[in-house]
Design goal:
It is built from 20 helices and 18 strands. The chain is α+β, with helices and mostly antiparallel strands.
Length: 616
């Protein structure tokens, strides 16, 4: 009876979860799935802090969004502690195993096809999410690991309804799911894909989470489960043969360690941003793009720079092209090879790059600049390497607790459904994170190229994840981030510009249509297909961009903005009133739940349906 009552509470909580926004002066969670938001709210309602809630959310996401993140992957957790004022990052990004080699994705000098490499064990990095969550809980949390796992265990054991987002991912990725029998058995039982509304129970995953709750991370990184992980990543594609087998060993799992890093700090029009440093390219590329745009009067409609105007979108496109040209060459894991972060953000270098942006014309194909004259590190000029596809998936959530602690987390298994390999008997997917490395090595001693994102033992592949904190006068104001592969950076950029330059509320900033360019060549992607994406980028504006020479928008006079970009979940701290608020993205099943005094009784928190502005 108690189990039935527990399930009923979950269903009630999911039923009333707000997909818009909510506000109370206490704890707030903003997550891409209502059941995972409920898990975080449950921790806050029981007196836990933001770190406890983040742990519960992440474990629940492994159940309800297994195609995007989980214990078989990695994560970046950006944390601000209210009491001490500290801001730091818990980096649990996957690492390459000891046997990894620079040419392993191009054994004969030719890059493997991404579709083959990414669905073979060779692509699996040593997972870090579980150890990252456990590390954060032990150092800054107030709840035991087992307590934070409890909501996820209930969801896996008793089940939940498949939403439209998961159903679409199952339909769109049938080949990846069908490659492995264990994965197909869960998501395409008896060969029939799950559809929206189906009830999904994951007994093997529930068993695994119970094992971890009882024995802790050691149960994952050592023992029978570790042996099952190593055996699973020995699987390969017939097209690749032995070359596609994974190289992870039990020693690699045992040796995995989490890194605690200071955030990357930057400034834009009097605001301060804290973001993710390398091995992610997210923070550096975001801050470089913002600084390239700072000389333009964005938000001033009288000068032609209002939201969605041709001038505004044009300079955004050009700034993205320049920043992504630099990203492709300069950014990798600077634990392995120095990244010239000082040079990339130096005013002198930025002024030189920003001068290339002409408000009245499109630049030719930009090349990466040379930031070394402005950098004191030991960075050496590398050369451009071949890029590979990045999945639009991953997941992001943001939390603030009643004490003002803030957490912003982006986590992933890389591509949608990761490698597609489910660990037999344990019910979770393994990542394909190593395909974020260069497939063809770029290192060239004669040319002074260190191979910034080449595969190497123990190295972390370059990421685009960009959990972000926005500060005013030294105090946190908002936390946000997004999934979306390389478009993550531009989703966060769009929201930041909407808040600071266009004066939008947090919810308005999130639902507004986005624009993205992730390559120096400048192929434009933009939104406008959903009714909530307002104000719309007009056909006249799109034609103006076409006239300037921007590509990716289709024929003149037609609607070229039909993409869906990212899914931003955010929390906001009103410095004037002390209220904590949230905003969720309807691009997924975005959900905000707040936990006020009436709900801190041990029962799940029921979210308010009230809507109000989120930025002054």
């Amino acid at each position: 009876m108690n189990r039935l009552a527990s399930v009923a509470r979950w269903l009630l909580l999911c039923l009333f979860s707000s997909t818009v926004l909510a506000a109370l002066p206490d704890g707030v969670v903003a997550v891409s799935h209502p059941a995972a938001a409920a898990a975080g709210a449950r921790m806050l309602a029981q007196g836990g802090n933001a770190i406890d809630a983040a742990a519960a959310v992440q474990f629940a996401l492994n159940v309800v969004e297994p195609q995007s993140s989980g214990i078989g992957g990695g994560a970046f957790m950006l944390v601000h502690l209210a009491k001490t004022g500290e801001t730091f990052i818990v980096d649990s990004r996957e690492r390459a195993p000891a046997a990894a080699r620079a040419d392993m994705f191009a054994p004969d000098g030719m890059a493997m096809p991404f579709s083959h490499a990414s669905t073979s064990g060779l692509a699996v990095g040593v997972p870090g999410t579980l150890l990252g969550i456990d590390t954060a809980l032990r150092r800054w949390g107030t709840r035991r690991l087992a307590e934070t796992l409890a909501p996820a265990i209930e969801l896996a054991e008793h089940g939940f309804r498949v939403n439209r987002f998961m159903a679409q991912d199952i339909a769109d990725n049938s080949e990846r799911i069908q490659q492995q029998p264990e994965t197909a058995a869960i998501f395409r039982p008896r060969g029939v894909p799950l559809v929206e509304g189906d009830w999904l129970v994951q007994s093997d995953l529930a068993k695994t989470l119970k094992l971890i709750a009882t024995k802790g991370p050691d149960a994952f990184y050592r023992g029978p489960l570790a042996r099952a992980i190593v055996a699973a990543q020995q699987r390969t594609r017939s097209e690749l043969g032995a070359a596609g087998k994974g190289r992870m060993t039990l020693a690699d799992l045992d040796r995995y360690r989490v890194a605690i890093r200071p955030p990357l700090i930057g400034h834009y029009r009097g605001w301060t941003l804290a973001g993710m440093p390398p091995p992610s390219s997210g923070g550096l590329t975001l801050l470089e793009t913002l600084k390239l745009l700072e000389r333009f009067p964005l938000g001033d409609a009288a000068q032609g720079y209002g939201f969605g105007s041709p001038k505004t979108l044009h300079v955004m496109i050009e700034a993205m092209r320049l920043a992504f040209a630099d990203r492709a060459v300069w950014i990798g894991d600077d634990d392995a090879a120095p990244v010239p972060r000082q040079g990339l953000l130096h005013p002198g270098y930025l002024a030189m790059r920003a001068a290339l942006i002409d408000p009245g014309s499109r630049m030719d194909m930009p090349q990466a600049g040379d930031p070394l004259p402005w950098d004191s590190s030991a960075a050496i000029r590398p050369t451009r390497a071949r890029t590979v596809p990045e999945s639009p998936h991953t997941t992001h959530f943001s939390i603030v607790d009643r004490w003002g602690n803030v957490v912003s987390v982006t986590s992933t298994i890389e591509y949608t459904w990761g490698s597609g390999i489910t660990v037999p008997g344990y019910g979770f997917l393994l990542n394909n994170e190593l395909t974020d490395f260069n497939f063809v090595p770029g290192a060239d001693a004669a040319a002074g190229n260190p191979g910034a994102n080449d595969v190497a033992p123990y190295k972390r592949p370059r990421s685009s994840m960009a959990p972000t904190l926005l500060f005013r006068d030294g105090k946190p104001v908002a936390a946000y981030g997004s999934p979306g592969g390389a478009t993550i950076i531009n989703s966060v950029l769009n929201v930041t510009l909407n808040l600071i330059d266009h004066g939008m509320s947090l919810q308005q900033a999130i639902v507004a249509p986005r624009l993205s360019v992730t390559h120096a060549a400048g192929q434009v992607k933009c939104e406008g297909g959903a009714p909530f994406m307002r104000p719309h980028f007009s056909i006249a504006t799109q034609d103006a961009l076409r006239t300037l020479g921007h590509t990716g928008l289709g024929e003149a006079g037609t609607e070229g903005c039909r993409d869906t970009i990212g899914s931003v979940q955010a929390v906001f701290i009103d410095l004037a009133s002390g209220r904590h608020r949230g905003a969720a993205d309807p691009r997924r099943e975005g959900t905000v739940i707040h936990v006020g005094p009436a709900t801190r009784t041990g029962a799940p928190a029921i979210p308010s349906k009230a809507a109000m502005p989120l930025m002054p």
